[in-house]
Task: inverse folding
């Protein structure tokens, strides 16, 4: 058991450092990565909207705020908050935002890669140093 806690007296390996320059980002590769990141964000938007809606609907926040609005605005201005924030309305809005996010994020990933490639031609890229631990 005591041998488990003994340290070896071997000399440590010398650390090797490699300096590289990142000069080009493949536009198609950046587009694919941006697409999958946008899919993950879209799933998060839809699940988050569902969770927030279910908590607010089950806790009675919509009916309480709707009652407050009807008492402030008067009964002549019948504004039903539960109908406006129904499950179908909330989920359709979340899906629309997720699809819009998918298109915009994918396009911006390609545009950012193109901009990086143009700037990299001017300044020579980004210098990186890698070491082995």
Result:
């Amino acid at each position: 058991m005591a041998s488990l806690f003994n340290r070896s007296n071997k000399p440590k390996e010398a650390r090797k450092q490699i300096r590289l320059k990142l000069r080009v980002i493949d536009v198609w590769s950046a587009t694919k990565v941006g697409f999958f990141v946008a899919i993950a964000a879209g799933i998060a938007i839809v699940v988050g909207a569902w969770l927030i809606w279910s908590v607010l609907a089950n806790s009675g926040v919509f009916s309480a705020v709707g009652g407050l609005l009807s008492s402030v605005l008067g009964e002549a201005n019948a504004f039903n908050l539960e109908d406006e924030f129904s499950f179908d309305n909330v989920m359709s809005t979340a899906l629309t935002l997720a699809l819009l996010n998918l298109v915009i994020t994918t396009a911006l990933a390609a545009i950012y890669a193109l901009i990086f490639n143009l700037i990299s031609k001017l300044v020579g890229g980004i210098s990186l140093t890698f070491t082995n631990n």
